Amino acid sequence: MKVIILLDQIQAGLGGKEKASTELGGKKLAMGAADTIDKTLKKKDSSIMATFFCGTEFYEANKDIVQGKITRMCQKMQPDVLLVGPTYDYSDFARMACEVGYAVESNSEIPVVAMVAQEKNADIISEYKDKLNIVKMPKKGGTGLSDSIDRGIELCAKKVKKEDTTEFVTKYCF
Amino acid sequence: MQKKFEQILMPVATKLANNVVLRSLRDGFLIITPLIIVTSIFLLIGNFPIPGWADFWTGILGPQWTEWFSAVSDSVFSFTGLLACFGISYAYGKNRGLRAVHASAVAIVSFLIMTPTTVEVGKKTVGAVQTIYLGPNGIFLGLFTALVSVELFRFAIKRNWTIKMPDGVPPAVSESFDALLPSGFVILAFFLVRIIFSLTDFGTAYNFIYTMLQAPLKNVGNSLPSVLLYNFLASLLWCFGINGPTITNSVWSPIFFVLTQDNLKAFQSGHALPHIYTQQFIDIFTTYGGGGSTLSLLIVMLFVCRSKRIKELGKLAIVPGIFGINEPLIFGLPVVLNPIIAIPFIIVPVVNTLISGIVFSLHWIPYTNGVMLPWTTPPLISGWLSTGSWLASLLQLFELVLGVLIYYPFVKMLDKQYLNEEAAAEEAEDVDIDFSNI
């Protein structure tokens, strides 16, 4: 399974909140937090084929452009699945992840899985939980991170194999 | 291995993180922390660690100038027991779904009921409250009074022991009457508790809690093994993505708070500082640049590593790192769920604790004065301000360098892995993805 992951500037290892103006970019590498996910994926003969990153302020100012560019780049690179997050409880990142995830899944054939924490994200979750598969994860510093990553990857695999996800989604997603 | 650790740690960490009492204790102390930091600055100005400082200002402002500053610091440091009662009852009331203001008001009254209100002056007994009961020595009494009074208040509210006012009565009046019977119930309970203690050898609840609980717990907490365990667990939990200090503080914060306040009171009064293992010791002499002492890690990343990713992150994270902010590193390197970095991330704070503990035990450096500095105060400055000795800054520098040496082989391992990945990606095709023309 080839996965593209979308991260904000903090999770991509490009700096803190002060770097929120980081422009949309990407590398054919597992950057920052994606490296942890890549290690789990590799145990299952899968890998991160690319990391897309975008500062949350840049996204906020260029929503339509970013959503369009990510959708087209996904269509060009043809991953098996797009993983948006893990966003923890970073609310700006959670909004970007859900909006971009929904745009890609609606406008392409590529399946999308989001990973978002409930804390600080109640509004965005209630807006998108019926439109997008959002796997529950802990807030920053909360317990259960490793399990939630396993579940996010499991849902990616299920969607790629076009398996029935109803039970899984009921149990582990919002 | 990682999974096994998680299976053992997760249930305990989750229980501690979700326990409403422990969470309220932590939140309660946080409510009064800003007051302590602000008034600490006044205390520090009045007692700045430069020879001749006091004489210099006395010459300009007159001998009363220290009183101006101590009036402000006394307003908090002589009442930390009462303030702890306020903060914890507010947090506990809120976490229990009560009106926090009412819960807090009832707890403060309960605390005052338990406080001795007479003082022997010669052969006379006069009505007065001694600050000894309201300050650091009263913290545990404040803590227990807060929890018990709020729990009793909740008991009464849950059973609807309230006076219902007719519709049309303004909400403020109605809420006040809602709290009438539950408040009466709590006050009656503490009235009886005070009488019961007066019939025992302890005489007061304060004496009982201080002798049976606060003093023994202080002795246990004020030890090297206790702080080693604290720092080991805090770092270990971070490696699994869990905010370690949030969990460990749930257990240790009341003890460290008391130890710190003891030193602060002694510093204010010009007495010998009693304890080594204060909150300052932990914040200032065991980790540098945040959890895991990541300033040492950052130095290795900046000056030794060759991988573009690590070097770039090092450049971006060094300034926040100096001021104790390591979020970009925790998630961006990442530290979380990274077994290579986990080893030094746990070892370095433990080694720092051990060295600092020994150095302070040997009296090579004066004990910390309890003045709570803003957590962003950089190392070297913080060491000097917290002890008044430049040797403390030297200790910090030594531990920072030692941390660099411990982190070095592990970060190099990660650097090599990232370099290989970068080389492979560059060999195969262009690593960068160009979004400009899509």
From TrEMBL, chain A:
Cite the EC number.
1.21.4.2
Extract the InterPro entries matched here: GrdB-like, Various_sel_PB
The protein's GO terms of the molecular function aspect are:
glycine reductase activity
Q: Which UniProt keywords apply?
A: Oxidoreductase, Selenocysteine
- What is the recorded name of this protein? Glycine reductase
From TrEMBL, chain B:
Q: Which UniProt keywords apply?
A: Cell membrane, Membrane, Sugar transport, Transmembrane, Transmembrane helix, Transport
* The keyword Transferase appears for this protein: no
Q: Which GO terms describe its biological process?
A: carbohydrate derivative transport; phosphoenolpyruvate-dependent sugar phosphotransferase system
Report how it sits in the membrane.
Answer: Multi-pass membrane protein
Q: Which domain of life is it from?
A: Bacteria
Recorded hits in PROSITE patterns, A to Z, give:
PTS_EIIC_TYPE_3
Give one Pfam family: PTS_EIIC
Primary subcellular site in the record, as a coarse category: membrane
A single Gene Ontology MF term assigned here is:
protein-N(PI)-phosphohistidine-sugar phosphotransferase activity
Q: Where are the transmembrane segments?
A: 29-48, 68-93, 100-119, 139-157, 177-197, 281-304, 316-337, 344-367, 387-408
What range(s) does the PTS EIIC type-3 domain occupy?
A: 5-410
Entries under InterPro entries matching the protein = PTS_EIIC, PTS_EIIC_3, PTS_IIC_cello, PTS_Sugar-EIIC/EIIB
Where, per UniProt, does this protein localize? Cell membrane
Q: Which GO terms describe its cellular component?
A: plasma membrane
Role? The phosphoenolpyruvate-dependent sugar phosphotransferase system (PTS), a major carbohydrate active -transport system, catalyzes the phosphorylation of incoming sugar substrates concomitant with their translocation across the cell membrane.
The protein depicted here goes by the name: Permease IIC component
Native source organism of the sequence: Companilactobacillus kimchii
The major lineage groups are: Bacteria, Bacillati, Bacillota, Bacilli, Lactobacillales
